[in-house]
Amino acid sequence: MSMESNQLFGHDTMNAPWGLESRTKLVALACHFFNAKNIAANHSVINKEVPSGRNPEPLTVSDFHKCLEVNKTFPKAPNAFRVVQIVEQMSSTGLLVHAGHGNRSVAGLQDHYLYFLTASEARRDLFRLVPVLGPEYLYKLCASGLVHITGTNGDGKTVAGTGLIVDSSHILTCRHVVSDMIVDEKQVFQGNEYIVNKASVHVHPEVDVAVVRMNGPLLSPLKGALFKVPVVAQTVYTLGYPKLPGLRDASVTMQQGAVTNASVTSLSGEKLFLYSAISRPGNSGGPVMSEDGYVVGLSIVDATGQYDPSDAFSPHYAGIPAQVVVGAVEDLGLGIQLPYLNLE
Question: Are strands 13-14 and 77-78 parallel, antiparallel or unpaired?
């Protein structure tokens, strides 16, 4: 092993578990360091000789660790084994390509890796990192792109729903969110105040989908969140603004579950899918996200139905599948093309 033990476990080493910020930083740096286009340049950074007459070989985790130390990227030297673990996780999720075993070493420090950014992955922007960084990172990415749509119902009570910012001037939600309440004229999205009137709201005549056009400061959309068909048994998360009594401010919540049926038809003929992640009042219009960071649909209604109180049952919730949402938005003719991943 090429590293001294005090470099791995000394008091100036990051030995404690890493938080999301440190892991995110390391993953971004690893993508840059192992990028096939940067191999020669990174040889120079760590003073590693490039073989004459042939292309430089892919770099190792040990090389990456050395680069982090040379550039003093972190206040303390990263624990080398922690770096190996994260790099191996990047490889297992397909973000990095394992390019061969090097000299015999502890914990794979001499293993070689490469990073190739394909066109399809580039479309996903930061969402391509979700499989490595997990649901905490997914929540962080999504929360900033969701809005709380407020209004009153026929009884004058305050009600609300969730919207998903799809570009700098449009918010995607469910038709029933904006149709079943008197929408407040003044709405605050991403810290800015907007006026919402009837001319702002575009509803689909058949699908429970609506788009609200915003005039005013540009919105920051959920960049890189591609739409993709739901798949049965995949882990999913509902995100949105459910009603939370007793709290001062509305907050984005996230609930885990799984797709229980990828394609069902309601009694009224709607094409839906079912999932077990709890969708409370107020979640309607919010995204149902897959664990690898795709929008697989929009939350709409509780589909538990009526059960005998003595019967045990597992509740199911219904959503509009991604492919139906994409088609409905295109039907509205607003010039919005939601990013959609076609499966082969």
Answer: parallel
